[in-house]
Amino acid sequence: MGSISGKAPIPAPRLSKENNNNNNNDRQLRGEVDDLRGEISSLRDQLNTQMQMFSEERRRWEQERKNRSPSPKTQFRNATHEKRTANRSPSPKTQFRNATHEKRTAVLLSNDRLI
């Protein structure tokens, strides 16, 4: 009997058809993942562009609305309010608010006491 010197040989992995197919599948899947990432990136860019465009359009519409004359509904409401208040005499509070500074600070006398 001969003596075995050293360590036993380490088996090398076999290259089989299965192993080759797995590598091809992995490469194919990685390629699909990269394609999907690129598509997601381009869709995100499109969405951001559209959001910015709509934001600018909204600002423009709001500016146009501010510059436009009042709506017919607002004009009607104002005219109705003016008709209702035209025949009324101003309330004491309104008279006081609209009075000059001298009238507001004047001392009022009532019989025997200051008011």
From TrEMBL:
This is Uncharacterized protein. It comes from Panagrolaimus sp. ES5.
